[in-house]
Write a structure and sequence with these properties.
The protein is an alpha/beta fold. It is built from 16 helices and 17 strands. The strands form two sheets. Strands 7, 8, 9, 10, 11, 12, 13, 14, 15, 16 and 17 form an eleven-stranded mixed sheet that branches. The chain has a six-stranded parallel sheet with strand order 3-2-1-4-5-6, sandwiched between helices. It is elongated and about 80 Å long. One of its GO terms (molecular function) is NADP binding.
Length: 440
């Protein structure tokens, strides 16, 4: 049978990994796919680097559109990234009748609805396992393995850079800025780490998982996004003393009235498996009504882990290449005509519990003032921890840290409480607020 011919747009870290793994494991991949899969054309602006990466027998060009225009190419793999030219090329490939594989979470989170609709109209597939959590097959798990379930919630450590930083802050007691510099030196963080440390990368991935879990359109603009830049070593230490660890989580939940979609630092009980995921590793927990809790763990980035996901998509498309489009797995798990208009709730309507840290004057009555404000708004307290003044600011200091854990309350109500507490003359610094999830 004639091999499936693949055109690669971009031969950087993931592209070269894809080429190498496909070549190394060609025999087993062919046995699984039912026919050979060959990368026969590569487009990259750095033609010399591309030629060095793929060797003889592969056509190398500097124009991605030449790959799309080649009638021999069956599948186009987009590994350029970003929202700009990548979007144009993916839509052009679809219009040309090519199947598309992409690792571009930003593109799908923002423009996925348009891209999937174009693919549906043309009868081609867009596969994107590599777009979320690198080598972990979480898209296939949500879209196929858990298809019998009503998904209740998904929570994931889906950005390795931030997890590495938080792990180092906890292990070494260092502040964020110090660890960020170390992460950049070791290559875990980019020179411009904004997308990672501000939570944007994780939000792209959470948006895609939310759409698949609940059969709703991708709606990145509705996601609440908060990064780790304001976390202090003190909060990580206090969380540990209370039996929690702080992780940057992407969370999506089905609740009465809609869907929650949020990314933020989160206190997780230390006994949960996901709380013990360290370094640059990723993990996703899915709660389904039939299966219960399932955990998916592995490398979320890197050349060959991500290539593993890209090639899995190539195999899926090869198997289904000649299938009736109506019999293929839908892009977002649900049939396109059955997508729901379930709204994504504003953050003010989200209900969760909280960790609060207040730097306060060390004098009588302060705790009563603070708890009085919480009680007045119906916010129930779970635990209180007060650090002695000499532990915070030296012997004889006139201030102390007050740590409060609350029971579940609405975010909007907590915002009101924070505004009232911050206005107290005895509260001496901005209040630290971190959301808490039991993930039970």
């Amino acid at each position: 049978m004639k091999p499936i011919q693949v055109g690669l747009l971009g031969i950087g870290t993931v592209g070269s990994g894809t080429f190498n793994v496909l070549k190394r494991n060609q025999e087993e991949i062919t046995r699984r796919a039912g026919r050979s899969i060959q990368i026969t054309m590569v487009a990259d602006l750095d033609v010399e680097r591309a030629r060095a990466a793929v060797g003889e027998g592969v056509q190398v060009v500097n124009d991605a559109r030449a790959v799309i225009a080649n009638p021999e190419i069956d599948i186009v793999v987009e590994l350029i990234g970003g929202y700009g030219i990548a979007k144009a090329l993916v839509l052009e490939a679809i219009a040309a009748g090519k199947h598309v594989v992409t690792a571009n979470k930003a593109l799908l989170a923002v423009h996925g609805t348009e891209i999937f609709a174009a693919a549906q109209a043309k009868g081609v597939m867009v596969a994107f396992e590599a777009a979320v959590a690198g080598g972990i097959p979480i898209i296939k798990a949500l879209r196929e393995g858990l298809t019998a379930n009503r998904i209740q919630w998904v929570a994931g450590i889906i950005n390795g850079t931030t997890n590495f930083i938080l792990s180092e802050m906890r292990d070494k007691g260092l502040d964020f800025e110090v660890v960020l510099k170390e992460a950049q030196r070791l290559g875990y963080a980019e020179a411009d780490p904004t997308f990672d440390i501000e939570g944007v990368d994780a939000a792209h991935k959470a948006t895609i998982m939310s759409a698949i879990a609940y059969g709703i359109p991708v709606q990145f603009d509705k996601a609440y996004v908060e990064g780790i830049t304001k976390l202090g070593a003190a909060d990580i230490k206090y969380a540990e003393q209370l039996g929690y660890r702080i992780k940057l989580l992407g969370i999506t939940k089905r609740v009465e009235g809609g869907v929650e979609l949020r990314v933020h630092p989160t206190l997780v009980p230390a006994k949960r498996l996901i709380a013990n995921v360290e370094g640059a590793m990723n993990a996703v927990v899915v709660q389904g009504d039939a299966v219960g809790t399932t955990l998916y763990y592995g490398k979320g980035a890197g050349s060959e882990p991500t290539a593993s996901a890209v090639i899995a998509d190539l195999v899926d498309i090869t198997r289904l290449h000649t299938a009736d489009p109506l019999n293929r797995v839908p892009h977002l798990a649900f049939q396109p005509s059955e997508l729901s208009d379930l709204p994504v709730l504003p953050m003010s309507e989200v209900v969760t519990s909280y960790y609060l840290r207040l730097r306060v004057a060390d004098k009588a009555g302060v705790l009563a003032q603070v708890t009085g404000i919480l009680a007045g708004l119906g916010i129930s307290i779970d635990a209180v921890l007060q650090r002695e003044a000499d532990e915070v600011a030296g012997e004889g200091a006139a201030q102390t840290d007050l740590i409060i854990l609350t029971h579940d309350t609405r975010e909007g109500t907590m915002n009101d409480a924070l505004a009232q507490m911050q206005a107290l003359p005895t509260v001496l610094a901005p209040i630290a607020r971190i959301r808490k999830e039991e993930l039970a």
